[in-house]
Amino acid sequence: MLLQKIETRAARAGVIGLGYVGLPLAMAVARSGFAVTGFDIDPSKMVALDARRSYIDAVSDAALAAEIEAGRFQATTDFAGLAACDVIIICVPTPLTKHRDPDLSFVEATSRSIAQHLRPGQLVVLESTTYPGTTDDIVKVILEATGLKSGSDFFVGFSPEREDPGNQHYHTATIPKVVAGDGPEALALMRAFYGAAVSTVVPVSSNATAEAVKLTENIFRSVNIALVNELKTVYAAMGIDVWEVIDAAKTKPFGYMPFYPGPGLGGHCIPIDPFYLTWKSREYELPTRFIELAGEINSAMPRYVVGKLAEALDIRAGKALSRSRVLVIGLAYKKNVADIRESPSLRLIEIIEERGGRADYHDPFVAEIPPTREYQALKGRRSVALAPDTIAGYDAVLIATDHDSVDYAAIAKSAALIIDTRNVFNRLGLSADQVIKA
């Protein structure tokens, strides 16, 4: 019956967690013809959605309004509505604790909320990134504590999210979707449901395999970024430009894929997800040396950059960092988005001020620093407007995020010293004597 409801678009989908993953997914599912209810504990999101205002760059106000006005999307903080949903998708955060252990409290709490309204004939899907075994050993177990059984009364699956904020070439419906289920019936439901909403479905043999797919994707990026970050420090000591090396190396049509260095890692995936596997591997008494070493290298980059900044101030301006004012360009963790999760820019500001300097920031996408768990002291600081006199008033400008809309020519004209962690000035052909790559 559930398969028939999915195939005829008579099924109602519920998406729990209307953030960077959940809201774009809800829109894709609604556009494919399903009625969708979005659930979130944040009342401010409900206010925005009721006003037809999207707070996620990947979802335009017009796209949101179209699905609401067509009656295909509604949002609520009342989880009692889960009982009316045939497919329930969990899109909640999976952060790390301060000891780098998995924090599955959001997944567990959400699973318990679903259990309160669980009924026969529902498909429950986890999309949150986690270690292999979470779906079957935690979500399924919590749901089965109701007395209902997975595979006969209800069904459980896992499909890793693959959102890429700011990517203009791919969106939720065009990114291939890996799917898995607890048993053949669950997999058939997963293929039917996601096949209706996305262009390509990639089935795998188990939920644990699908969970491992997501971790592998992010570990691949983490390790390769760490490699080029380490090469950057080595080549810099030799007087070699790592960006020139990478540009030349990527002309090889086989056996090479370019990755680029930066001031550190940001976003919710790459700095966090690899450590879910590191934690799980301890259960099997197996080391994850590449993952842990990559984490160490990438975590050290902000301090390396500030070291280069301090050195340049001393040599070029004869001024200590402790007596300097620095303007950080870009607070978001990547270009052309407003997402500051795990942004290395926050750590850069913190380190500069730990060393006695004063740091301000400019970001056309982030007007004010919102509350964060780790950087409470920075809350409420506002973006500085770029003007020639303003730029000239700083001892150094540090390029942390290379947003396309920033006027780099104005910075090159007015800044006394520029620390470029993104190779943006060379890439744009804005050669300037005061630019130091870091």
Question: How does this model look, in words?
Answer:
The chain is of the alpha/beta class. It folds into two domains: 2-205, NAD(P)-binding Rossmann-like Domain (Rossmann fold), CATH 3.40.50.720; 221-437, 3-Layer(aba) Sandwich (Rossmann fold), CATH 3.40.50. Helix content is 40%, strand content 12%. It has helices spanning 2-7, 22-31, 43-50, 61-69, 105-117, 134-144, 184-197, 207-237, 242-249, 274-281, 289-317, 344-354, 388-392, 408-414, 424-427, and strands spanning 12-16, 35-39, 73-76, 87-90, 123-126, 155-158, 177-181, 201-203, 325-329, 358-362, 396-399, 418-420, 435-437. The strands form two sheets. The protein has an eight-stranded mixed sheet with strand order 3-2-1-4-5-6-7-8, with helices on both faces. β1 (12-16), α2 and β2 form a beta-alpha-beta unit. α8 runs parallel beside α11 and α11 (289-317) crosses α12. It is elongated. It starts with a helix and ends with a strand.
Pick out its properties.
alpha/beta, Rossmann fold, 2 domains, five-stranded parallel sheet, 15 helices, 13 strands, 40% helix
List the helices and strands and how they pair.
Elements: H1 2-7, E1 12-16, H2 22-31, E2 35-39, H3 43-50, H4 61-69, E3 73-76, E4 87-90, H5 105-117, E5 123-126, H6 134-144, E6 155-158, E7 177-181, H7 184-197, E8 201-203, H8 207-237, H9 242-249, H10 274-281, H11 289-317, E9 325-329, H12 344-354, E10 358-362, H13 388-392, E11 396-399, H14 408-414, E12 418-420, H15 424-427, E13 435-437
Parallel strand pairs: 1-2, 1-4, 2-3, 4-5, 5-6, 7-8, 9-10, 9-11, 11-12, 12-13
Antiparallel strand pairs: 6-7
Helix pairs in contact: 5-6, 8-11, 11-12
